[in-house]
Structures are given as C-alpha cells and as structure tokens.
Amino acid sequence: MSINRVIVIGGGPAGMMAAAAAGSRGHRVTLLEKNEKLGKKLYLTGKGRCNITNNADIEEFIKNVPTNPKFLYTAFYTFTNQDLLLLLDQLGLKTKVERGNRVFPVSDKSSDVIKALEKHLNNNNVKRLTGEAVRLITEENRVTGVELKNGDILPCDKIILATGGLSYPSTGSTGDGYRFARDLGHTIVPPKPSLVPLESAEDWPAQAQGLSLKNISIKVLNKEGRKIFEDFGEMVFTHYGASGPVILSASSYMRDMEPGKYRIIIDLKPALSEEQLDARIQRDFQKYSRKFFQNSLNDLLPKKLIPVIIRLSDIAPEKPVHQITREERLRLVSLIKGLEFTVKSFRPISEAIITSGGVSVKEINPSTMESKLVQGLYFAGEIIDVDAYTGGFNLQIAFSTGFLAGMSC
C-alpha cells in the first residue's frame, strides 16, 4: 500500500473519524478545521449530552433513513454502531442506552465524546491545522491540493470533504463543501432543513411560550387527514410555534412543506382514555363546584396552558363550574386529548439540527465514498444527500461514512 498525503476538511464527527481511519492505514493525514476547536456541533447534540448512536440493528437503521437509505448499506455494515461503541470503549468512553435505544455517554457530557475522538486522532498521528480552505486544486481531473484563505497551498493525493451542511452555521456549517463540490462539477440537491422546529399558523402556542411538556403524544396529519407520524415524549411551545424532541422528529416526515399541509394533534393526557379523562374532570368539577371555570383546572393542567385551553374551549372563564353543561365538558375532554395547530412553515435552516440535501449520491461510489467525477475526492457525513430521523441515526451516518472514506483513500 502506498502512503498518501490526505487532507480532511471539516473537524466534525465525520471528519474526525475519516482522519483517524486514514491515519490508521499509515497515510500522512492533515485535518483542516476553520474553528478553533474540533467537534463544535457535537457539543450541541442531545441537549449537550450527545446522542452518539442508536442500539438498533442495521436494518432498523436503514428504516430510519428516509433519504437514499440504500446508499448507506456498505457504510453501515463496514462500520456498525457496535463497532463505534467498541472503539469508544477502547478510548475510555463508557456509554449507556436510554429510551428508544438512544446511546449516550455515561457522563452525559458531549465534551467527553470529543475528547475520545481527539485521542483517536492522536493515536493515529493525525496532524491538526486551523485554517479556512477556499479552493480545491485539481489537475487532469484529480485532486492535488488545497488553497487556504491566507494563500498557503497544501499539496495532497486525497481529499475528504466532511464540511457538514447548512444547519447551525455558528458551528462552522456554512455550506463551503457544497461550493467546493459544485465547482468540481458535482450536482447539489437543494439543501432543506430537517429535524427543525415548526411555526404555527395559529397564535395560541405563543401564549404558552416556554412551557415544556413531558409524556405527551402527538400525531401529524396531512391535508387528506392521513396520519403520517406519531410519537410520545417531550415538546416545548415557543413564540413561533413548537420545538422539542417529538416536534423535531415530526418535521423530518414533512418532506414537502407548504403552509397548511400538515396539522399537529397533541394529546396532553395520553395515559387516559376519553372516558377516564371525563371521569377525572368530573371529580375536579365536583371539588371546585363553587368556583369559576378558570379556577378549576389547576390540578389537571400546567398553569401556563390553562388560559389557552379556556380560550379554545369556548367556555366562559367566569362561568360557575356547576353550570358547565355535559356538552361543554365533553368538548373540554376532546380539546385536551386533541390540542391542534396547523403548521405554517419550518424554522430557518440555520435552526435545523441537520440538513437534508447535498451532494447527489448518484455521483458518489457507495462502496468507497469516492467521487465518480474527480479522482481522489471523497465525501463523508452531512454534506452527502442522506439524512435520518432523530435517535442517534444521523451521527452514525457521519461516523460510518467517515470511516469508510478514511479506509478507502
């Protein structure tokens, strides 16, 4: 095996894994990162806890990739989630499995994941360089080097592009890789936000701004009334609509966003049937029979949500509880079991956890991650037109494609 000079552009999970894999083969590897620190976006994942991967089998992984799943077969099977966990264990990082088979570090610190990956780079003699690439240099359709912003030229035999997408630009994901790939003739599938908060057409979510709800369930209905997604977990109301784990997951099922096409139905009490909830409300009404309606819901609902529910119920706030009719009470039951808002739009791509779109998979060899158009050019991670649902699947895509690119160059 000849020793190559390899430049990896992008110090996120895909780039770090690619650089270490290439270094493990004896190549002279330089990891180029424009931020002062590596893994900046990793700090944000899983609310700072870093949802590293998922403990599901590989076929389940494939099911959780809505965009070009077949492209990832070789990458997923070459470097599996179990391979990743074994590697991290060898690097001294202990992990745990939580709800939905999500894998986190035992310490609940994303910084510990980054430290383990940095150790992996050190173990494989990867040189790190802070600097911003401005151009990839090619000769006769083969990569030969990288020009930096300061004018320096770094010669090389192979380049791995792992620059991420357009989400969280403050972490360095500013779409540079799309420009590099496009300049070399690659097709870029238009980037769109995925795993992104939602804006509501109605104004009532803003009334509950900041309220975080646990143990609720949601359904997403399309324009025809067909259910396209269902989940149980946490969410939060915002000044524009809603966010939180179940909302972010729901967004990735809304493949063609247009105002009014999707509705979110929130069940605030999924553990209770309508009959059980009605019985519970009747007990509360009996307890507060001499109070106004607006003062009768404190045992049932979060304080911030009560004005919203009162407004949407069409029951007068100052109506005495003992005067509320059966019809009104059942309307209240239906509202609590089916609080609804219409999705107006996604939030901007800069607020998305990941980017959908990127370099067309038709122009990348899935067995090596090498460009079919330019010799010596490889891709890894979010820059490729693949994306998955929440639960650690997207980070595994980064690690698996990074490993495959690094071992192939």
Please describe the topology of this protein.
Blueprint lengths: L4 E5 L3 H12 L3 E6 L19 E2 L3 H6 L9 H6 L2 H10 L4 E3 L4 E4 L4 H14 L3 E4 L2 E7 L2 E7 L4 E3 L2 E4 L14 H8 L4 E7 L3 E3 L3 H4 L4 E10 L5 E11 L3 E3 L1 H7 L11 E5 L6 H14 L18 H8 L12 H12 L1 E8 L7 E6 L17 E3 L13 H16 L1
Parallel strand pairs: 1-2, 1-10, 2-6, 10-19
Antiparallel strand pairs: 3-5, 4-5, 7-8, 8-9, 11-18, 12-15, 12-17, 13-14, 13-16, 14-15, 16-17
Helix pairs in contact: 1-5, 1-12, 9-11
Tell me what you see in this structure:
Helix content is 29%, strand content 25%. The chain contains 12 helices and 19 strands. The protein has 409 residues and is of the alpha+beta class. The chain folds into 2 domains: 5-193 and 353-408, FAD/NAD(P)-binding domain (3-Layer(bba) Sandwich), CATH 3.50.50.60; 197-346, Helicase, Ruva Protein, domain 3 (Orthogonal Bundle). The protein has helices at residues 13-24, 58-63, 73-78, 81-90, 110-123, 176-183, 204-207, 245-251, 274-287, 306-313, 326-337, 393-408, and strands at 5-9, 28-33, 53-54, 95-97, 102-105, 127-130, 133-139, 142-148, 153-155, 158-161, 188-194, 198-200, 212-221, 227-237, 241-243, 263-267, 339-346, 354-359, 377-379. A hairpin with a 2-residue loop joins β7 (133-139) and β8 (142-148). The model has no long low-confidence stretch (mean pLDDT 92). The protein is elongated, with a radius of gyration of 25 Å.
